């Protein structure tokens, strides 16, 4: 974890920002719960457990800054709640998600499924893609199995 914090500190410094104690507390929560796709309120509640002096507005500002600097990706799965996801180290693009419309589970797809699509967009439209996001909405394996078991 310390290695990732050092890299994030360097990314902030490169953009003339400091890794303040408040920012570090927020980053640590995101690193500790990386698989959870936390909302700003979730992050705040977890930060508050360790650093009660940090306010909600500070957490919001930190998340927005980290999002602007592309350290964190701000995502929405169609439920009206913004969630924050640390960008994977060395990742050229945001990763993809599978969102179950039944149970709300979220799975990540780390592979870049859109390389060929990006080439077509560049060649046919002359558009240089800097990033992309892909979210599939459907029914996860577990919910499908539960439905199959209740109908038999």
Q: What this model shows, in words?
A:
The protein is of the alpha+beta class. The chain folds into two domains: 1-90, Orthogonal Bundle (Arc Repressor Mutant, subunit A), CATH 1.10.10; 93-152, Ferric-uptake regulator, C-terminal dimerisarion domain (Dna Ligase, domain 1, 2-Layer Sandwich), CATH 3.30.1490. Helix content is 47%, strand content 16%. It contains six helices and six strands, in the order H-H-E-H-H-E-E-E-E-H-E-H. The protein has helices at residues 2-14, 21-32, 40-50, 56-68, 115-125, 141-151; strands at residues 38-39, 72-76, 82-86, 96-100, 106-109, 135-138. The strands form two sheets. A three-stranded antiparallel β-sheet has the order 1-3-2. Strands 5-4-6 form a three-stranded mixed β-sheet, with no helix packed on it. A hairpin with a 5-residue loop joins strand 2 (72-76) and strand 3 (82-86). Helix 2 (21-32) packs across helix 3 and helix 3 (40-50) packs across helix 4. The N and C termini lie far apart (47 Å). The mean pLDDT is 87.
Highlighted features:
152 residues, alpha+beta, Arc Repressor Mutant, subunit A, Dna Ligase, domain 1, 2 domains, three-stranded mixed beta sheet, 6 helices, flat
């Amino acid at each position: 974890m310390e290695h990732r914090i050092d890299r994030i500190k360097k990314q902030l410094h490169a953009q003339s920002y400091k890794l303040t104690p408040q920012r570090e507390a927020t980053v640590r929560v995101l690193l500790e719960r990386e698989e959870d796709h936390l909302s700003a309120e979730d992050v705040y509640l977890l930060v508050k457990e360790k650093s009660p002096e940090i306010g909600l507005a500070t957490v919001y500002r930190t998340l927005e800054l980290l999002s602007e600097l592309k350290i964190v990706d701000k995502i929405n799965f169609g439920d009206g709640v913004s969630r924050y996801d640390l960008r994977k180290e060395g990742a050229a693009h945001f990763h993809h998600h599978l969102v179950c419309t039944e149970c709300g589970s979220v799975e990540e797809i780390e592979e870049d499924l859109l390389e060929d699509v990006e080439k077509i967009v560049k060649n046919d439209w002359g558009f240089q893609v800097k990033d992309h996001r892909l979210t599939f909405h459907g029914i996860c394996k577990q919910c499908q199995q539960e439905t199959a078991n209740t109908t038999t």
